[in-house]
Amino acid sequence: MDEKMDRVKIMVFERPVVIFSKRSCIMSHTVKSLFSDFGVNPTVYELDEIARGHEIEQALSGIGCSTIPIVFIGGELVGGTNEIMSLQLKRGLKPMLVRAGALWV
Q: Which of 9, 20, 79, 82 has its CB surrounded by the most CB atoms within 10 Å?
């Protein structure tokens, strides 16, 4: 595993919800709003604003994440907007957030 991917693992380690986002991306805004509506406070990394954001985006691309936003729940890669919205429609997102400790019911 390369250094960039190690950095990504550290960024998501022990955080219930992590979103790799871009301020300029409307889909990123949509996903962040969905989590906010749940009352979840995700850790958000704005790749177009943070140091080495481009390198982190390349590392994420190397594991099959070609679109922004990229969401990790409970340290596991969930995917992008399509995967999050699909989970929400199937009522699978909320239980996942509860299991990760991001949401209490």
A: 20
